[in-house]
Amino acid sequence: MKYLKIGIVFVVCLLLYFLPALLFKADPAYYKSLNLPNYAPPAILFAIAWPILYVIFSMYLAIKITNRDFSKEMIVYFIINYAISFFFNKVFFIDHNLFLTFAVTFCCFLSGLFLFISSFKKSKKEFFIFLPYLLWTLFASILMAHIYLIN
Q: What's the angle, vertex CA 33, arms to CA 31 and CA 39, rounded to 5?
């Protein structure tokens, strides 16, 4: 029964993370049409990296929520992070607003940093779950700042 609950919460969390992609379709052609720095990865890398990070976050949340093993602080940071990241596809692919896209990306990094710090306080091992997200959003922030500046 416990694993069924974890599975249900996992699926709900995963669906929430994929909801923005369903509402605001990504347009890889727009990304390719921009002036990109030489270190910019191909669009397909984003389509691989984000789902992996969403699966990790969803599994983490499913286990923590089902076991009632979370702090209010962590839940608040997750909600803030989700609310910010929800609008990435809209501001980038629909609105084509590069500055706002950079701001959203940087705020994802900052909220990820708060998740990282909060998890470090709770468990020295658990914070490694957030390290890939933190590094990816830092890279994405630098990339978006550069894209904004050269376009």
A: 60
Express the helix, strand and coil content of the chain in percent, nearest 5 each. 80, 0, 20
Give the model confidence (pLDDT) of 102-151 as tens digits: 999 999 999 999 998 988 887 878 878 889 999 999 999 999 999 999 99
What's at 3, amino acid-wise? Y
Measure Cα distances from 107 to 42, 67, 89, 136 in Å: 23, 29, 14, 13
3-state secondary structure at position 25: coil
Residue 82 CA to residue 43 CA, distance in Å, equals 22
22-58 pLDDT tens trace = 999 999 899 999 999 999 999 999 999 999 999 999 9
State the residue for tokens 């089902």: 66
What's the whole-model pTM score? 0.91
Q: Which of 90, 91, 92, 98 is nearest to 20 (CA)?
A: 90
**Structure letter (DSSP) for residue 93:** I
**How far is C-alpha 46 from the geometric centre of its chain's CA atoms?**
11
